[in-house]
Design goal:
Layout lengths: L7 E6 L4 H15 L4 H22 L2 E8 L5 E8 L7 H4 L4 E2 L2 E2 L15 H8 L1 E7 L5 E8 L3
Antiparallel strand pairs: 1-2, 2-3, 3-7, 4-5, 6-7
Helix pairs in contact: 1-2, 2-4
């Protein structure tokens, strides 16, 4: 007898407005998996950031959330799109980097389109974050939010 299928939530991202809808769906999914309120919020932040970046830079994409049981319980986050990709992934995952540049004090406020902390949040909240180019273009971003013990 095989194990029952683990829950999976697939979210199609098309517009910037989808970030709020996707974040709410992610929060409910985390609650169904038994995550604490804090971890539900963390997952919602990660999904909102991924959805926003997908809509802004790629035009459309998909985010999948799935339960993970081994080696530790958690929620796997997988986002993929067909956008232009990220030139320097290491920089993009650090706070203070937004839209391909560092937000140094000499960058005028009117030219800033973000705070430069979005993808950094993924590194703070998710474990085993991997960002890779997809064959034919686009990005694949994966990570796991571990449940509080």
């Amino acid at each position: 007898m095989s194990a029952p299928p683990r829950p999976v939530l697939a979210l199609e991202i098309v517009t910037q407005d989808d970030r709020l809808w996707a974040a709410g769906r992610a929060r409910r999914f985390a609650a169904e998996l038994g995550f604490s309120a804090l971890d539900q919020a963390r997952l919602a932040v990660c999904v909102a950031e991924l959805a926003s970046n997908t809509a802004k830079h790629a035009g459309r994409g998909r985010i999948e959330l799935s339960e993970e049981e081994a080696p530790l319980r958690g929620c796997r986050v997988r986002a993929e799109d067909e956008g232009p990709g990220i030139a320097c992934v290491a920089d993009a995952l650090r706070d203070g980097f937004s839209e391909g540049r560092w937000l140094t004090p000499d960058v005028p406020q009117r030219e800033r389109h973000g705070l430069g902390v979005g993808l950094g949040a993924l590194g703070r909240f998710l474990r085993d974050v991997r960002v890779s180019a997809r064959p034919g273009g686009g990005l694949l971003i994966e990570g796991v939010l571990r449940r509080d013990p």
